[in-house]
Specification:
mainly beta; six-stranded mixed sheet; disordered N terminus; binds CU-O-CU linkage; binds copper (II) ion
């Protein structure tokens, strides 16, 4: 069985803009989700990832080819691997990056898989040098929208496009009329047409170095054809290392049906801040034939159109919008009554080094292939703490099977999307905003926010906990917890 790669359908008809319908649905007391059946026995799906530098001409580049790093041949972004829940993936990584480039690994973002397959250099495996091969084998337990990327020199490798989307399909009877994907990523291209540095001191010490060219599925003006009047699933991924759009839909009713791949009882999308690495599965009722709706970013002076959704054909549905839910993931609910408390503070680095002190000095790579500059810390410990190949101690040691209540406190003036490997947080409450209870592998900590989350430590091993603004991660805001 060959793994498939495909892009979303592009094109469609120009048409009038539909009126904003504003679904006020969202039941006050949503029915609980139906649990997913036990993991079925699936196929064994081989996947060949050949990491290499390749010239790639994406629509966003205006027909020019840029020297990307990719896992596959072809002018496609992002590559999408689709498997079914229950399938075992056997992914062979061949590192054919130039010898001058990094050793690498592949991390499977959001997948609750065994620690040895998690793809973190030094922590869960030896890094794979150029010319070498490594095989990952696992069966993802959850259906949903996930992605994979390196965990080594991540700002540059993600900056050059070295990533892929992994869709784990759930119950085939998911009752939607279309299933499309919108993958958001900016590119840092300078006036001379080449890539700008992927890490800058100015960016790393603040909100990150933003891309100069925005894209969705590699296009600056993405158009997606949807069946008119259909309830269409839109898998929105933010794989950018820096930007935090505020996602909305104009010209159509839209509901959130999954967050970071995990089903939630459908609720209306008003807007949702999608930090780096976060995913949002929407169901959008496509307008009538010829109509258009827009996926937008409100986090800008004027809403920015990320994708135009163009409806074609005769209307599929006429009943009021009431999107069907996905099946619940098989995720244990934390036992809040008996949860042990843990506190994590996300701060500027304890060493007090200033950007100015570091300007102009080269930043050597250290363990985990991160720069040795430290602007950020978790619980006052910036990563890395020790010398080469010396891992710092875990931020916390968790007892397997036990529930924990984590207080995540951002004492900086910048947002931080905080990601945990191998587990999902149950998001409980915030001191600054109302939260919809949900599971997430990446939570956006806004400035000065204290977010209460909980998890069941049910996956043994050493699991990274880090900011997914990659320049923050690579300059200190990274650690790990140990589940014994
Ligand atoms: Cu997207 Cu440590 O990962
Ligand atoms: Cu951060």
């Amino acid at each position: 069985m060959t793994p498939t790669r495909r892009t979303v359908a592009l094109g469609g008809l120009a048409g009038v803009t539909a009126t904003v319908l504003g679904w006020r649905g969202g039941r006050a007391d949503p029915a609980p989700l139906v649990p997913v059946p036990p993991l079925p026995a699936g196929r064994t799906v081989p996947l060949s990832l050949v990491a290499a530098e390749r010239p790639v001409a994406l629509p966003a580049f205006g027909g020019r080819a840029m020297p990307l790093m990719t896992f596959f041949e072809g002018d496609v972004f992002p590559p999408v691997v689709r498997i079914r829940r229950g399938d075992a993936l056997v992914a062979t990584l061949d590192n054919r990056l130039p010898a001058s480039a990094e050793e690498m690994s592949v991390h499977w973002h959001g997948l609750r898989i065994p620690n040895g397959e998690d793809g973190v250099p030094y922590l869960t495996q030896s890094p794979v040098p150029p010319g070498e091969r490594y095989v990952y084998r696992f069966t993802p337990p959850d259906a949903g929208t996930f992605w994979f990327h390196t965990h080594c020199n991540t700002a540059e490798t993600i900056g050059r496009g070295l990533l892929g989307v992994l869709v784990v399909e759930g119950d085939e009877s998911e009752p939607y009329d279309a299933d499309v994907l919108v993958c958001l990523k900016d590119w840092r291209i300078g006036e001379d047409g080449g890539f700008l540095p992927f890490i800058t001191d100015e960016g790393a010490a603040r909100a990150g170095s933003f891309g100069t060219l925005r894209s969705a599925n590699g296009a600056a003006a993405l158009r997606i054809a949807l069946p008119a009047g259909g309830d269409c699933r839109l898998r929105v991924l933010n794989v950018d290392p820096t930007r935090i759009p505020e996602i909305g839909v104009e010209g159509a009713e839209a509901a959130i049906v999954a967050i970071d791949g995990i089903a939630v009882p459908p609720f209306p999308l008003r807007s949702w801040r999608l930090g780096p690495a976060m995913r949002l599965d929407l169901v959008v009722r496509a307008p009538a034939g010829g109509g258009e709706a827009r996926l937008v970013d409100y986090h800008a002076p004027q809403p920015v159109t990320l994708a135009t959704l163009a409806a074609t054909g005769t209307p599929r549905r006429t009943a009021a919008f009431d999107p069907a839910p996905l099946l619940a993931a098989d995720l244990a609910a934390p036992d809040l009554a008996n949860a042990a408390p843990l506190a994590f503070t996300f701060s500027a680095t304890a060493t007090g080094l200033d950007v100015a002190d570091l300007a102009g000095t080269p930043a050597p790579l250290g363990p985990l292939c991160v720069t040795r500059r430290s602007f950020w810390a978790i619980n006052r410990a910036p990563w890395p703490d020790g010398g080469h190949a010396v891992l710092p101690p875990p931020l916390a040691t968790l007892e397997r099977g036990r529930s924990y209540r984590l207080s995540l406190h951002n004492v900086t003036p910048h947002p931080h999307p905080v990601h945990i490997h191998g587990h999902f947080f149950r998001v409980l409450s915030s001191n600054r905003r109302d939260v919809v209870p949900h599971f997430a592998d990446t939570v956006l900590l806004t400035p000065k926010e204290r977010l209460e989350v909980a998890l069941v430590a049910d996956n043994p091993g050493d699991w990274m906990l880090h900011c997914h603004i990659i320049e923050h991660q690579e300059t200190g805001m990274m650690g790990y917890v140990r589940v014994t």
